[in-house]
Structure formats: C-alpha cells, structure tokens
C-alpha cells in the first residue's frame, strides 16, 4: 500500500517540483552573482534545479496540488516565472548600479572610446563599465551577499503564495523604486570622478585663458586620463566597500525580508 500510495502521489509531487523550479530557475537566471551573463545558461538553470530537492520538503506542503486542466497548470507556471523574474530583477538592479557607474567614470576619464562587449547593459560598453560589473559580481560571490536574495526568494512563498494573482501595481512601483535607487547609487559611486572632472576642466579653462598659445587639447586628453586612472586606483577599494554596504541594505529590503 505504501508503494501504491507513493506511485499515486508522484504526479502531484512532480508538478510541485516544476512549480518550484519555475520561480527558482527564473530568479537564478538574473540574480546578481549567480545569474551573470558570463555563466552559461545551462549552468544557471542547473543551479535553480539543484535548489528544488532542497526546498521541496520545506515548501511542498504550501504548494497547490496538480490541477485537472492544462490551462490552470499553464497559468500557475506563468505566474511563477513572472514572480521569479520580478524578484531576480529587483536584486539585479543593485548590481547594474556598478555598471552604470563604470560607464560614467569612462566618460569622465576620457576612456569612452575604448569599447568592449557588455552583456549586462547590452551591445558595447566601456572598459571601466565591464571592470565595475565584474568587480560587483566577484564581490557579491566572495562576500556571500548572494545568499540574501536566495533567502528572500524562499521567503517570497509566504508573501506571494503560488496561485495568487501577481500584484502588478505594487510590483511596478517596486521596480521603479529599485531603478531610482540604483541610479542614485551609481551617481554616488561616480561622485569622486565628477568632482575630479569639474576641477580638471576648470583648470584647463583657466590655462586656456592665461596662455592662449598653449595647445590645451593635447595636454587635456593624456592628463585627464592619467589623473583619472590615478584617482580610480585610489578610490576603488572604498568604492567597493560602499557598494557592498549599499547592496546588503538593498538585498535586505527585498520583498519577503521586509
């Protein structure tokens, strides 16, 4: 009887596992650190799949049984994928702040012409943008910050139970708020370079007025690059520390952990 009962329960357990994988797999595809574009998609999906047997005993009792209609099953799966992408996207916006800051730093350093492929922002990006993106991923993985979004993902089943309608209005507001906070963080990280660019350009303007015969342009480009690189080497460690603190605070504010 026990074997017969287990065989009878297998379809329901399999459907619950698929429901878990829909949310977990979608989130892992975009989470910072774990879901970087440099990581092949099968590996990211494998990470999401590996979480299913770990969480199924814990979350299984709260999951709905397999529905009788295929349409209802498809609706549940689509909702779970949407929730996973939404939660992963909220965390991803924190890491994007580093890429945006790197793009701004390149413009201020005069390195905007050095373009490299940028899978985070799409198309071609600047070398400093890629440097900052990779630094953010390494920092999140090395410091263990990636565990906070994973915990928020697990706790999200209490906040957004499977089968409940997705709160589109609140979800959109959360995305807008996260995007604005990401932009504010990017501007804060690039602030030393903004100040340096202002000082350099004011100094060059004064030099052009005092000594018009000096070819300011030929002095400005290499001087700006050298000063910017020296400033980057000086402020990069505290910049990464500031990002780590901001990322931790933002991750702890994810839905499910508030």
UniProtKB/TrEMBL annotation:
InterPro entries: T3SS_IM_R. GO terms for biological process: protein targeting. Belongs to the FliR/MopE/SpaR family. It is a multi-pass membrane protein. PANTHER family: FLAGELLAR BIOSYNTHETIC PROTEIN FLIR (PTHR30065), SURFACE PRESENTATION OF ANTIGENS PROTEIN SPAR (PTHR30065:SF1). Keywords: Cell membrane, Cell projection, Cilium, Flagellum, Membrane, Transmembrane, Transmembrane helix. This is Flagellar biosynthetic protein FliR. One of its GO terms (cellular component) is plasma membrane. The lineage of its organism: Bacteria, Pseudomonadati, Pseudomonadota, Alphaproteobacteria, Acetobacterales. It comes from the Bacteria. It is found in: Cell membrane.
């Amino acid at each position: 009887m026990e074997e017969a009962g287990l065989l009878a329960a297998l379809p329901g357990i399999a459907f619950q596992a698929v429901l878990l994988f829909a949310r977990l797999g979608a989130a892992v595809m975009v989470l910072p650190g774990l879901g970087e574009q440099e990581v092949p998609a099968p590996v990211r999906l494998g990470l999401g799949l590996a979480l299913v047997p770990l969480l199924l005993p814990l979350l299984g009792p709260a999951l709905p049984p397999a529905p009788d209609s295929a349409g209802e099953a498809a609706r549940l799966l689509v909702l779970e994928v949407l929730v996973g992408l939404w939660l992963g996207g909220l965390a991803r916006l924190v890491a994007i702040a580093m890429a945006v800051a790197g793009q701004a730093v390149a413009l201020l350093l005069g390195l905007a012409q050095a373009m490299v492929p940028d899978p985070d922002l799409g198309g071609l990006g600047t070398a400093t943008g890629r440097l900052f993106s990779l630094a953010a991923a390494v920092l999140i993985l090395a410091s263990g910050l990636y565990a906070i979004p994973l915990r928020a993902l697990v706790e999200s089943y209490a906040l957004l139970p499977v089968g409940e309608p997705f709160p589109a209005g609140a979800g959109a507001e959360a995305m807008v708020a996260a995007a604005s906070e990401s932009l504010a963080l990017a501007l804060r990280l690039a602030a030393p370079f903004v100040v340096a660019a202002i000082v350099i350009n004011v100094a060059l303007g004064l030099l052009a007025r005092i000594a018009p015969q000096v070819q300011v342009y030929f002095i400005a480009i290499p001087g700006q690059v050298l000063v910017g690189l020296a400033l980057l080497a000086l402020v990069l460690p505290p910049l990464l520390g500031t990002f780590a603190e901001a990322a931790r605070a933002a991750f702890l504010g994810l839905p499910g952990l508030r």
